[in-house]
Amino acid sequence: xxxxxxxxxxxxxxxxxxxxxxxxxxxxxxxxxxxxxxxxxxxxxxxxxxxxxxxxxxxxxxxxxxxxxxxxxxxxxxxxxxxxxxxxxxxxxxxxxxxxxxxxxxxxxxxxxxxxxxxx
Length: 120
What we know:
This protein is of the alpha+beta class and 120 residues long. It has 3 helices and 3 strands, in the order αββαβα. It has a 3-stranded antiparallel beta sheet. The two termini are 29 Å apart.
């Protein structure tokens, strides 16, 4: 999702989690983040937080994540006056843009997360 946002040159302000239960009951939860993002890591962690807040009572047949509230990536945003200590890992957008460039040049298997390599 982040790669598509970067390709379109937009950032998302709202992250939405969609859950469909085994009985086809569907719920959505969304949150608006402080700073619009193109980062897949930020989108993923925000969706995980939404999922952990929801109390599961039945089995789930579908989980979806969406982004909305698009703004141009060139639009300036308000910086914080004081740094928060929990701001760890805020450079993911730069890393992911670099990965996008490598993938475009060398193919989709050129870079991958170490956690996805398995025990070979």
